[in-house]
Amino acid sequence: MPTLQLPRLFTWIILSLALIAAIAFFSPHQMPLVLYKVALVSLAAVLGYWLDRALYPYDRPHTYAETGEDLVPRGLAMLRRALIVLACVLGLTLGL
């Protein structure tokens, strides 16, 4: 009989939902602000990802091998993408 495999970060999803429920219970007037901030961070992360894809269409991290001589360029492509997403998240959340 196959075992049930939970999605990745399932515990963090449950913890996040519990914290949102706690905010809704203890401070319901703050819920629109919380949802607004969650929407901003989500939008910025998606924007950063697509900005990286648009700026570097032929240099994506998954195109490199996971081992061997392609390891350094793959790491640099992953770092580049993470920095672009970080810049978008900080820019959008601090600017508005």
UniProtKB/TrEMBL annotation:
Keywords: Membrane, Transmembrane, Transmembrane helix. Pfam families: Holin_2-3 (PF13272). The chain crosses the membrane at residues 6-26, 33-51, 71-94. It comes from Rheinheimera maricola. InterPro entries: Holin_2-3. The lineage of its organism: Bacteria, Pseudomonadati, Pseudomonadota, Gammaproteobacteria, Chromatiales. This is Holin.
